[in-house]
Amino acid sequence: MKRKVLGVLLSVAMVATMVAGCGSSSEPAATDDAAATEEAADTEEAAPAEDAAEEESADTAAAGGKIGISMPTQSLERWNRDGAYLDEQFQAAGYETVLTYSDNDSARQVNDIQNMLADGVDLLIVAAIDGEALNTAMDEAATAGVPVIAYDRLIMNDAVSYYVSFDNYTVGTLQGQFIVDTLDLENAGDTVYNMEITAGDPADNNAGYFYQGAIDVLQPYIDAGTLNVVSGQTDFDTVATAQWSTDTALERAQNILSSYYADGTQLDVWLCSNDSTALGVAQAITSDYAGSNSVLITGQDGDEANLKNIVDGIQTMTVYKNVSNESVVTLGLAQAILNGDTIDESLIPSFGIECSYDTESYETSEGNPCPSFLLVPNVITADNLQDLVDTGLYTMGEDGYLSAVQ
Ligand code: BGC
Protein backbone atom coordinates (compact mmCIF):
# COMPACT_ATOMS: atom_id res chain seq x y z
CA MET A 1 0.00 0.00 0.00
CA LYS A 2 1.37 3.37 -0.91
CA ARG A 3 -0.29 6.44 0.45
CA LYS A 4 1.90 9.40 0.82
CA VAL A 5 1.18 13.05 1.15
CA LEU A 6 4.05 14.96 -0.34
CA GLY A 7 4.93 17.84 1.91
CA VAL A 8 7.46 19.32 -0.46
CA LEU A 9 7.05 21.64 -3.36
CA LEU A 10 7.00 19.73 -6.58
CA SER A 11 9.67 20.60 -9.06
CA VAL A 12 8.72 21.97 -12.45
CA ALA A 13 9.89 18.74 -14.04
CA MET A 14 7.69 16.68 -11.76
CA VAL A 15 4.65 18.80 -12.46
CA ALA A 16 5.29 18.35 -16.17
CA THR A 17 5.44 14.59 -15.67
CA MET A 18 2.18 14.63 -13.75
CA VAL A 19 0.40 16.64 -16.41
CA ALA A 20 1.50 14.10 -18.97
CA GLY A 21 0.64 11.21 -16.66
CA CYS A 22 2.92 9.14 -14.48
CA GLY A 23 5.47 7.80 -16.84
CA SER A 24 3.83 7.08 -20.14
CA SER A 25 2.99 9.31 -23.00
CA SER A 26 -0.54 10.63 -23.20
CA GLU A 27 -0.22 10.92 -26.96
CA PRO A 28 -2.63 8.83 -29.00
CA ALA A 29 -1.24 5.37 -29.42
CA ALA A 30 1.29 4.28 -31.93
CA THR A 31 0.19 0.78 -32.75
CA ASP A 32 2.91 -0.37 -35.08
CA ASP A 33 5.44 -1.66 -32.62
CA ALA A 34 6.47 -4.83 -34.39
CA ALA A 35 8.12 -6.56 -31.46
CA ALA A 36 5.20 -6.02 -29.12
CA THR A 37 2.76 -7.09 -31.78
CA GLU A 38 4.62 -10.29 -32.60
CA GLU A 39 5.04 -11.32 -28.98
CA ALA A 40 1.41 -10.60 -28.22
CA ALA A 41 0.23 -12.52 -31.25
CA ASP A 42 2.22 -15.53 -30.06
CA THR A 43 0.36 -15.61 -26.77
CA GLU A 44 -3.08 -15.19 -28.22
CA GLU A 45 -4.02 -18.84 -28.15
CA ALA A 46 -2.87 -19.21 -24.57
CA ALA A 47 -5.49 -16.74 -23.40
CA PRO A 48 -8.94 -18.05 -24.17
CA ALA A 49 -11.83 -15.77 -23.33
CA GLU A 50 -13.64 -16.29 -20.03
CA ASP A 51 -16.77 -18.03 -21.28
CA ALA A 52 -18.78 -15.63 -23.36
CA ALA A 53 -17.27 -12.64 -21.65
CA GLU A 54 -14.75 -11.58 -24.23
CA GLU A 55 -16.39 -9.35 -26.67
CA GLU A 56 -15.10 -7.46 -29.61
CA SER A 57 -17.43 -4.95 -31.05
CA ALA A 58 -16.64 -3.68 -34.51
CA ASP A 59 -20.09 -2.41 -35.30
CA THR A 60 -19.36 1.19 -34.44
CA ALA A 61 -17.61 3.60 -36.71
CA ALA A 62 -14.60 3.60 -34.36
CA ALA A 63 -14.15 7.27 -35.09
CA GLY A 64 -12.54 7.65 -31.69
CA GLY A 65 -10.30 4.60 -31.94
CA LYS A 66 -10.12 1.24 -30.24
CA ILE A 67 -10.24 0.82 -26.46
CA GLY A 68 -9.02 -2.26 -24.56
CA ILE A 69 -10.97 -2.93 -21.37
CA SER A 70 -9.36 -5.54 -19.11
CA MET A 71 -11.47 -6.59 -16.12
CA PRO A 72 -10.32 -9.04 -13.42
CA THR A 73 -13.10 -11.62 -13.16
CA GLN A 74 -16.78 -12.24 -13.59
CA SER A 75 -16.94 -14.20 -10.34
CA LEU A 76 -17.17 -11.01 -8.25
CA GLU A 77 -20.42 -9.21 -9.02
CA ARG A 78 -19.28 -5.65 -9.47
CA TRP A 79 -16.84 -6.28 -12.33
CA ASN A 80 -19.67 -7.53 -14.52
CA ARG A 81 -21.28 -4.14 -14.05
CA ASP A 82 -18.04 -2.22 -14.59
CA GLY A 83 -17.28 -4.14 -17.78
CA ALA A 84 -20.78 -3.66 -19.14
CA TYR A 85 -20.93 0.06 -18.35
CA LEU A 86 -17.49 0.77 -19.79
CA ASP A 87 -18.24 -1.22 -22.91
CA GLU A 88 -21.61 0.44 -23.48
CA GLN A 89 -20.46 3.96 -22.74
CA PHE A 90 -17.34 3.82 -24.93
CA GLN A 91 -19.32 2.31 -27.80
CA ALA A 92 -22.03 4.95 -27.46
CA ALA A 93 -19.28 7.58 -27.70
CA GLY A 94 -18.12 6.09 -31.01
CA TYR A 95 -15.23 3.87 -29.91
CA GLU A 96 -14.60 0.29 -30.83
CA THR A 97 -14.03 -1.83 -27.72
CA VAL A 98 -12.34 -5.07 -26.70
CA LEU A 99 -13.52 -6.35 -23.32
CA THR A 100 -11.87 -9.23 -21.48
CA TYR A 101 -12.24 -10.90 -18.10
CA SER A 102 -9.20 -12.83 -16.91
CA ASP A 103 -10.76 -15.20 -14.37
CA ASN A 104 -8.66 -13.81 -11.49
CA ASP A 105 -5.54 -15.22 -13.17
CA SER A 106 -2.75 -12.63 -13.47
CA ALA A 107 -0.84 -14.49 -16.19
CA ARG A 108 -4.00 -14.58 -18.21
CA GLN A 109 -4.55 -10.87 -17.70
CA VAL A 110 -1.04 -10.22 -19.03
CA ASN A 111 -1.92 -12.30 -22.10
CA ASP A 112 -5.25 -10.57 -22.54
CA ILE A 113 -3.59 -7.15 -22.48
CA GLN A 114 -0.85 -8.30 -24.85
CA ASN A 115 -3.53 -9.46 -27.26
CA MET A 116 -5.22 -6.07 -27.07
CA LEU A 117 -1.93 -4.35 -27.88
CA ALA A 118 -1.43 -6.70 -30.81
CA ASP A 119 -4.93 -5.80 -31.88
CA GLY A 120 -3.92 -2.15 -32.10
CA VAL A 121 -5.85 -0.63 -29.20
CA ASP A 122 -5.32 3.11 -28.76
CA LEU A 123 -5.85 3.15 -25.01
CA LEU A 124 -6.05 0.57 -22.23
CA ILE A 125 -8.36 0.52 -19.21
CA VAL A 126 -7.17 -2.06 -16.69
CA ALA A 127 -8.60 -3.22 -13.36
CA ALA A 128 -5.66 -5.30 -12.15
CA ILE A 129 -5.97 -8.70 -10.54
CA ASP A 130 -2.55 -8.20 -8.99
CA GLY A 131 -1.18 -4.66 -9.05
CA GLU A 132 2.39 -5.96 -8.99
CA ALA A 133 2.08 -8.62 -11.70
CA LEU A 134 1.41 -6.69 -14.89
CA ASN A 135 4.92 -5.38 -15.63
CA THR A 136 5.37 -7.29 -18.88
CA ALA A 137 2.12 -6.00 -20.34
CA MET A 138 2.62 -2.48 -18.97
CA ASP A 139 6.13 -2.25 -20.39
CA GLU A 140 4.80 -3.32 -23.78
CA ALA A 141 2.06 -0.69 -23.57
CA ALA A 142 4.71 1.94 -22.83
CA THR A 143 6.84 0.77 -25.76
CA ALA A 144 3.81 0.94 -28.04
CA GLY A 145 2.92 4.41 -26.72
CA VAL A 146 -0.49 3.21 -25.55
CA PRO A 147 -1.79 5.20 -22.56
CA VAL A 148 -3.05 3.15 -19.63
CA ILE A 149 -5.81 4.14 -17.22
CA ALA A 150 -5.62 2.06 -14.03
CA TYR A 151 -9.28 1.48 -13.33
CA ASP A 152 -10.39 1.23 -9.70
CA ARG A 153 -7.21 -0.65 -8.65
CA LEU A 154 -3.79 0.95 -9.04
CA ILE A 155 -1.06 -0.87 -10.98
CA MET A 156 2.46 -0.59 -9.64
CA ASN A 157 4.10 0.36 -12.91
CA ASP A 158 5.04 3.80 -14.22
CA ALA A 159 3.51 3.03 -17.61
CA VAL A 160 0.19 3.82 -15.97
CA SER A 161 -0.87 7.27 -17.14
CA TYR A 162 -3.80 7.99 -14.84
CA TYR A 163 -5.88 6.37 -12.12
CA VAL A 164 -9.68 6.47 -11.81
CA SER A 165 -11.16 5.10 -8.60
CA PHE A 166 -13.18 5.95 -5.55
CA ASP A 167 -11.47 7.45 -2.55
CA ASN A 168 -10.40 4.08 -1.19
CA TYR A 169 -9.20 5.29 2.20
CA THR A 170 -12.55 7.02 2.72
CA VAL A 171 -14.37 3.74 2.03
CA GLY A 172 -12.61 2.33 5.10
CA THR A 173 -13.22 5.40 7.26
CA LEU A 174 -16.94 5.24 6.41
CA GLN A 175 -17.05 1.64 7.63
CA GLY A 176 -15.13 2.48 10.80
CA GLN A 177 -17.20 5.59 11.53
CA PHE A 178 -20.41 3.64 10.97
CA ILE A 179 -19.35 1.21 13.71
CA VAL A 180 -18.42 4.08 16.05
CA ASP A 181 -21.73 5.87 15.47
CA THR A 182 -24.01 2.84 15.51
CA LEU A 183 -22.59 1.50 18.76
CA ASP A 184 -22.15 5.03 20.14
CA LEU A 185 -18.63 4.10 21.18
CA GLU A 186 -17.95 7.64 22.39
CA ASN A 187 -20.43 7.04 25.19
CA ALA A 188 -19.82 3.33 25.74
CA GLY A 189 -18.57 3.77 29.28
CA ASP A 190 -17.42 0.37 30.54
CA THR A 191 -19.25 -1.56 27.85
CA VAL A 192 -16.97 -3.76 25.76
CA TYR A 193 -17.97 -4.73 22.23
CA ASN A 194 -16.41 -7.83 20.69
CA MET A 195 -15.26 -7.48 17.10
CA GLU A 196 -13.60 -9.45 14.31
CA ILE A 197 -12.04 -8.21 11.08
CA THR A 198 -12.00 -9.51 7.51
CA ALA A 199 -10.02 -7.57 4.91
CA GLY A 200 -9.50 -7.96 1.18
CA ASP A 201 -6.98 -9.36 -1.26
CA PRO A 202 -3.37 -8.33 -0.52
CA ALA A 203 -2.63 -8.41 -4.28
CA ASP A 204 -5.20 -5.62 -4.73
CA ASN A 205 -3.67 -2.24 -3.88
CA ASN A 206 -7.07 -1.04 -2.67
CA ALA A 207 -7.37 -3.61 0.10
CA GLY A 208 -4.79 -1.97 2.34
CA TYR A 209 -6.50 1.42 2.00
CA PHE A 210 -9.90 0.03 2.99
CA TYR A 211 -8.39 -1.75 5.98
CA GLN A 212 -6.29 1.21 7.09
CA GLY A 213 -9.11 3.72 6.73
CA ALA A 214 -11.30 1.63 9.03
CA ILE A 215 -8.55 0.80 11.51
CA ASP A 216 -7.49 4.44 11.81
CA VAL A 217 -11.02 5.26 13.00
CA LEU A 218 -11.36 2.20 15.26
CA GLN A 219 -7.86 1.99 16.76
CA PRO A 220 -8.52 4.48 19.62
CA TYR A 221 -11.47 2.33 20.73
CA ILE A 222 -9.40 -0.86 20.42
CA ASP A 223 -6.65 0.77 22.47
CA ALA A 224 -9.19 1.90 25.09
CA GLY A 225 -10.62 -1.64 25.32
CA THR A 226 -14.07 -0.53 24.15
CA LEU A 227 -13.60 -2.72 21.09
CA ASN A 228 -12.10 -6.13 21.78
CA VAL A 229 -10.88 -8.31 18.94
CA VAL A 230 -11.41 -11.63 20.71
CA SER A 231 -9.39 -13.74 18.26
CA GLY A 232 -6.50 -11.29 18.52
CA GLN A 233 -6.33 -11.33 14.71
CA THR A 234 -5.91 -7.71 13.71
CA ASP A 235 -2.95 -7.26 11.39
CA PHE A 236 -3.69 -6.93 7.69
CA ASP A 237 -1.88 -10.07 6.52
CA THR A 238 -3.72 -12.22 9.05
CA VAL A 239 -7.19 -10.87 8.26
CA ALA A 240 -6.70 -10.57 4.48
CA THR A 241 -8.76 -12.68 2.05
CA ALA A 242 -7.08 -13.90 -1.14
CA GLN A 243 -9.03 -12.89 -4.25
CA TRP A 244 -11.79 -11.46 -2.06
CA SER A 245 -13.22 -14.98 -2.00
CA THR A 246 -16.55 -15.52 -0.26
CA ASP A 247 -15.64 -19.14 0.49
CA THR A 248 -12.30 -18.19 2.05
CA ALA A 249 -13.99 -15.53 4.19
CA LEU A 250 -16.65 -18.08 5.21
CA GLU A 251 -14.08 -20.68 6.20
CA ARG A 252 -12.01 -18.28 8.28
CA ALA A 253 -15.12 -16.91 9.99
CA GLN A 254 -16.24 -20.46 10.84
CA ASN A 255 -12.83 -21.19 12.35
CA ILE A 256 -12.94 -18.03 14.45
CA LEU A 257 -16.49 -18.75 15.65
CA SER A 258 -15.66 -22.30 16.68
CA SER A 259 -12.36 -21.34 18.32
CA TYR A 260 -13.38 -18.18 20.19
CA TYR A 261 -17.17 -17.92 20.39
CA ALA A 262 -18.44 -21.48 20.86
CA ASP A 263 -18.44 -20.93 24.65
CA GLY A 264 -21.19 -18.31 24.32
CA THR A 265 -18.95 -15.26 24.04
CA GLN A 266 -21.01 -12.55 22.38
CA LEU A 267 -19.89 -11.24 19.00
CA ASP A 268 -21.01 -7.68 18.29
CA VAL A 269 -19.27 -6.49 15.14
CA TRP A 270 -17.58 -7.96 12.10
CA LEU A 271 -15.72 -5.36 10.06
CA CYS A 272 -15.70 -6.66 6.49
CA SER A 273 -13.94 -4.68 3.77
CA ASN A 274 -16.42 -5.53 1.03
CA ASP A 275 -19.58 -7.38 0.12
CA SER A 276 -18.07 -10.61 -1.23
CA THR A 277 -16.27 -11.18 2.07
CA ALA A 278 -19.28 -9.95 4.10
CA LEU A 279 -21.37 -12.58 2.35
CA GLY A 280 -19.10 -15.37 3.62
CA VAL A 281 -18.96 -13.93 7.12
CA ALA A 282 -22.76 -13.52 7.25
CA GLN A 283 -23.18 -17.11 6.11
CA ALA A 284 -20.84 -18.33 8.88
CA ILE A 285 -22.69 -16.29 11.50
CA THR A 286 -26.06 -17.58 10.31
CA SER A 287 -24.92 -21.21 10.45
CA ASP A 288 -22.25 -21.31 13.16
CA TYR A 289 -22.74 -18.50 15.68
CA ALA A 290 -24.17 -19.70 18.98
CA GLY A 291 -25.47 -16.29 20.08
CA SER A 292 -28.83 -14.81 19.19
CA ASN A 293 -27.95 -11.10 19.02
CA SER A 294 -27.67 -9.47 15.64
CA VAL A 295 -24.08 -8.81 14.63
CA LEU A 296 -23.14 -5.50 12.96
CA ILE A 297 -21.57 -6.44 9.62
CA THR A 298 -20.06 -3.89 7.23
CA GLY A 299 -19.55 -4.23 3.49
CA GLN A 300 -18.83 -2.40 0.27
CA ASP A 301 -20.25 -2.40 -3.27
CA GLY A 302 -24.02 -2.94 -3.11
CA ASP A 303 -24.00 -6.49 -4.48
CA GLU A 304 -27.49 -7.88 -4.87
CA ALA A 305 -27.09 -10.69 -2.32
CA ASN A 306 -25.77 -8.23 0.24
CA LEU A 307 -28.58 -5.76 -0.37
CA LYS A 308 -30.96 -8.63 0.30
CA ASN A 309 -29.08 -9.36 3.53
CA ILE A 310 -29.42 -5.69 4.47
CA VAL A 311 -33.19 -5.86 3.91
CA ASP A 312 -33.27 -9.06 5.98
CA GLY A 313 -31.22 -7.52 8.80
CA ILE A 314 -28.30 -9.92 8.27
CA GLN A 315 -25.82 -7.30 7.02
CA THR A 316 -25.94 -3.80 8.48
CA MET A 317 -24.42 -1.50 5.87
CA THR A 318 -22.55 -1.35 2.63
CA VAL A 319 -20.40 1.40 1.15
CA TYR A 320 -21.91 1.96 -2.25
CA LYS A 321 -19.75 2.94 -5.18
CA ASN A 322 -21.64 3.97 -8.30
CA VAL A 323 -19.59 2.19 -10.95
CA SER A 324 -21.67 3.64 -13.77
CA ASN A 325 -20.32 7.04 -12.69
CA GLU A 326 -16.82 5.55 -12.52
CA SER A 327 -17.22 4.58 -16.18
CA VAL A 328 -18.40 8.07 -17.09
CA VAL A 329 -15.29 9.62 -15.52
CA THR A 330 -13.09 7.03 -17.26
CA LEU A 331 -14.68 7.82 -20.62
CA GLY A 332 -14.23 11.58 -20.15
CA LEU A 333 -10.61 11.10 -19.15
CA ALA A 334 -9.91 8.73 -22.06
CA GLN A 335 -11.39 11.20 -24.53
CA ALA A 336 -9.22 13.99 -23.12
CA ILE A 337 -6.11 11.81 -23.31
CA LEU A 338 -6.81 10.77 -26.90
CA ASN A 339 -7.55 14.40 -27.87
CA GLY A 340 -4.26 15.51 -26.34
CA ASP A 341 -6.06 17.82 -23.89
CA THR A 342 -4.49 19.03 -20.66
CA ILE A 343 -5.41 16.66 -17.86
CA ASP A 344 -6.15 18.29 -14.54
CA GLU A 345 -9.07 19.25 -12.31
CA SER A 346 -10.47 21.55 -15.00
CA LEU A 347 -11.83 18.39 -16.67
CA ILE A 348 -14.11 17.55 -13.74
CA PRO A 349 -17.08 19.77 -14.71
CA SER A 350 -17.21 18.07 -18.10
CA PHE A 351 -17.62 14.68 -16.36
CA GLY A 352 -20.73 15.88 -14.53
CA ILE A 353 -19.77 13.56 -11.66
CA GLU A 354 -18.60 14.56 -8.21
CA CYS A 355 -14.93 13.65 -7.88
CA SER A 356 -11.56 15.09 -6.92
CA TYR A 357 -8.26 15.34 -8.75
CA ASP A 358 -5.45 14.06 -6.58
CA THR A 359 -1.80 14.20 -7.62
CA GLU A 360 -0.27 13.09 -4.35
CA SER A 361 -1.92 10.11 -2.69
CA TYR A 362 -1.21 7.27 -5.11
CA GLU A 363 2.22 6.31 -6.38
CA THR A 364 2.98 3.76 -9.08
CA SER A 365 6.53 3.57 -7.72
CA GLU A 366 8.37 5.29 -4.91
CA GLY A 367 8.29 9.02 -5.55
CA ASN A 368 6.20 8.74 -8.72
CA PRO A 369 2.67 9.94 -7.97
CA CYS A 370 -0.07 8.95 -10.37
CA PRO A 371 -2.64 11.66 -11.18
CA SER A 372 -5.94 10.31 -9.94
CA PHE A 373 -9.61 11.12 -10.31
CA LEU A 374 -11.36 9.89 -7.16
CA LEU A 375 -15.14 9.54 -6.86
CA VAL A 376 -17.14 9.75 -3.67
CA PRO A 377 -18.54 6.62 -1.93
CA ASN A 378 -21.79 6.59 0.14
CA VAL A 379 -23.10 4.60 3.08
CA ILE A 380 -26.21 2.51 2.38
CA THR A 381 -28.32 0.90 5.11
CA ALA A 382 -31.84 -0.48 5.32
CA ASP A 383 -32.98 3.12 5.84
CA ASN A 384 -31.80 4.63 2.57
CA LEU A 385 -32.11 1.82 0.01
CA GLN A 386 -34.33 4.15 -1.96
CA ASP A 387 -31.20 6.18 -2.77
CA LEU A 388 -30.01 3.23 -4.85
CA VAL A 389 -33.33 3.02 -6.66
CA ASP A 390 -33.06 6.75 -7.33
CA THR A 391 -29.80 6.19 -9.24
CA GLY A 392 -31.86 4.33 -11.82
CA LEU A 393 -29.43 1.43 -11.52
CA TYR A 394 -31.59 -0.70 -9.20
CA THR A 395 -35.24 -1.55 -8.98
CA MET A 396 -37.11 -2.58 -5.84
CA GLY A 397 -39.44 -5.53 -6.08
CA GLU A 398 -42.69 -5.88 -4.17
CA ASP A 399 -40.80 -8.05 -1.68
CA GLY A 400 -38.57 -5.03 -0.91
CA TYR A 401 -35.46 -6.64 -2.42
CA LEU A 402 -33.33 -4.75 -4.91
CA SER A 403 -32.21 -5.97 -8.30
CA ALA A 404 -29.52 -4.34 -10.39
CA VAL A 405 -30.76 -3.12 -13.75
CA GLN A 406 -28.72 -4.98 -16.35
C1 BGC B 1 -12.88 -2.89 -5.36
C2 BGC B 1 -14.05 -3.22 -4.48
C3 BGC B 1 -14.39 -4.69 -4.61
C4 BGC B 1 -13.16 -5.59 -4.52
C5 BGC B 1 -13.49 -7.01 -4.88
C6 BGC B 1 -11.74 -3.81 -5.06
O1 BGC B 1 -10.64 -3.48 -5.81
O2 BGC B 1 -12.50 -1.54 -5.17
O3 BGC B 1 -15.14 -2.42 -4.85
O4 BGC B 1 -15.26 -5.06 -3.59
O5 BGC B 1 -12.16 -5.13 -5.38
O6 BGC B 1 -14.08 -7.11 -6.12
Mean pLDDT: 88
* Gyration radius, in Å: 22 Å
CATH superfamily (homologous) name of the largest domain: Response regulator
CATH architectural designation of the largest domain: 3-Layer(aba) Sandwich
Counting helices, strands and paired strands, the structural category is: alpha/beta
Poorly predicted regions: 1-21, 23-62
> Portion of residues in helices?
25-40%
User: How many distinct folded domains?
Assistant: 2
CATH class of the largest domain: Alpha Beta
CATH topology description of the largest domain: Rossmann fold
Count every helix, treating DSSP H or I runs of 4 or more residues as helices.
14
Summarize the structure.
With 406 residues, the protein is of the alpha/beta class. The chain contains 14 helices and 19 strands. It has helices spanning 12-19, 34-43, 77-92, 106-118, 135-144, 168-182, 205-223, 236-239, 246-261, 275-288, 304-311, 323-339, 348-351, 385-390; strands at residues 55-57, 66-71, 96-101, 123-126, 148-151, 160-166, 193-198, 227-229, 269-272, 296-297, 300-301, 318-320, 355-358, 363-365, 368-369, 372-375, 378-380, 394-396, 402-404.
